[in-house]
Amino acid sequence: MITENNKMVDLVHKNYVLISVFSRFGISLGFGDKTIREVCEEKKIDLQFFLEIVNSFLDHDYFPREQLKSFPIRLIVDYLTKTHHEYLEITIPEIERVISGREGICYEDKEHNFLLNTFFQEYKDELIAHIKREDEQVFPYALEIEQCYLQKKPAETLPDTFRDYTISRYLQEHDDIEEKLFDLKNIIIKYLPPPKNPRLCYQVIVLLFNLEKDMNDHSRIEEKVFVPKVAMMEKVIGRNNSRQ
Amino acid sequence: MRKINFLIITESFVYKTGIRFLLEEMYVTGKIHYSEDLSQIEKSNADYIFVDTDLPDVKDLYKQIRSGNEGVWPVLIALIHHRKDKDLVSSGIFRHFLDLSQSKSEILHALAEITKNSFPPDRAPVREEKLSEREKSILRFVALGYTNKEIAEKLFISMHTVITHRKNITRKLGIKTVSGLTVYAILNQLIDMNNVG
Questions:
Q1: Domain with B26 in it
Q2: CB pairs under 8 A between A and B
Q3: Is 0.85 exceeded by the ipTM?
Q4: Each residue of A186-211: pLDDT tens digit?
Q5: Residue of B179, B186, B188 lying closest to A122 (CB–CB)
Q6: Which of A45, A54, A58, A67 is buried deepest, with most CB atoms within 10 A?
Q7: The whole model's pTM is what?
């Protein structure tokens, strides 16, 4: 268990992937000997929220669902949005750079490179569409719901755009993006022929596994914390699925 | 393939996590299921039950397990350390003993030995997961973008049968999406790339 008195540097030694989690909170390297509490105070980050996110990221068995649900939607949405941003701006372009062949081609046969690239593009398009839908519709909706909830306003005061929306619909929209990523890995590992450039393929695989791990963590927060919390608030302000 | 169910009966966190860790080492994730829920003991469909022999009422537990599981009884494995409890060995309650004072490799071997008959661990050679001719022809249609309904009509089979075939294809290949299946079909010359819309 990580506590506020742990040093930032020790966290990174524990699991260096946390560096990308830090960046979502606006923290970057060069911590010196600062503790978590010091860095959070300096950057005006909610200390408890930061600790719960880091702890549940480090230990998959540690998932304080109720604790996480107690944080304001604003905080959760901010973290999720930053994560999306990182996927779109950094992670996906990184994978694309390797797969697209700009740094050399993975396979001897043109057709194989083409298949890999096409499949990846399809995955990418779906992911972008999914993220956009969340950023542009789901998250703003959730923030409105929270406003209504906090100010004890009835659901009728919601802006027109959200009249017919409910969070349960979002769960149905939470489509097969994870399955595509799973397939992409298996196609490279099992079904494409041995690559001409194993090093490049290895890079792709590492990036895909990292993305998958991170996304599992991300969707867990969405499905187990974000959605139930919004659904609970919907109920309180008198909004339910039958309204659809 | 159905999952192997393990039930771990102990109050010790260290035992629980230790056993879980070893089982995960032996089996690829997803193939096993374990539970620590004691209330489930009578209707558990566990294949194997690990029992901490330090628990006070081991014999009562045994009765509970026998009364709840009709016909097929789960295999009971006693968790012991060093000194085997003479009473337990002679009581005939347990079919196996797992000595927790052993090294990792010894325990893994013992576990493999215990489970080898019913469920071979992943290291054992597995049968080849080849697609049948029927599955191949269905895969061809899927890759070309036909819906389940269309495939059923073309092949004069029910939708239900198509869905079952598709499940089997996905299980055998480890590919879940239609586009993934299309790539597989092209790579294996089941369809021509030019036919894909």
A1: 4-115
A2: 42
A3: no
A4: 999 999 999 998 899 999 999 999 99
A5: B179
A6: A54
A7: 0.75
